[in-house]
Write a structure and sequence with these properties.
With 88 residues, the protein is mainly alpha-helical. It has a domain of 54 residues. It has three helices and no strands. Helix 1 runs antiparallel to helix 2 and helix 2 packs antiparallel against helix 3. It starts with 6 loop residues before the first helix and ends in a 21-residue tail after the last helix.
Length: 88
């Protein structure tokens, strides 16, 4: 993985990870998480929050992280059950 070295990028990565994990626990699917991450990345680009190199590294890391199923765990700790719909 590409290491983030900019403290601001690290904070944004942690914030994005926390938000996506929360969305996943509320049964949002991978495509919805991708949309959320894309919006977050767009906002950072638009505001020029990070320098261009940090932004590129951040985007590469987010892309790999969001596609990796082991990045998320289900409510009971089982990643296979993460995106199941709730049964009432």
């Amino acid at each position: 993985m590409t290491a983030l070295q900019d403290p601001e990028a690290i904070r944004h990565f942690q914030s994005l990870c926390d938000a996506c994990q929360e969305l996943a626990l509320r049964h949002h699917g991978p495509s919805e998480l991708r949309l959320y991450a894309d919006g977050y990345l767009h906002a950072l680009r638009r505001n020029q929050t990070l320098d261009p190199l940090s932004q590129r590294r951040f985007e590469e890391l987010v892309d790999r992280w969001i596609r990796d199923p082991s990045s998320f765990v289900g409510p009971d700790g089982d990643p296979r059950r993460l995106f199941e719909t709730e049964r009432f």
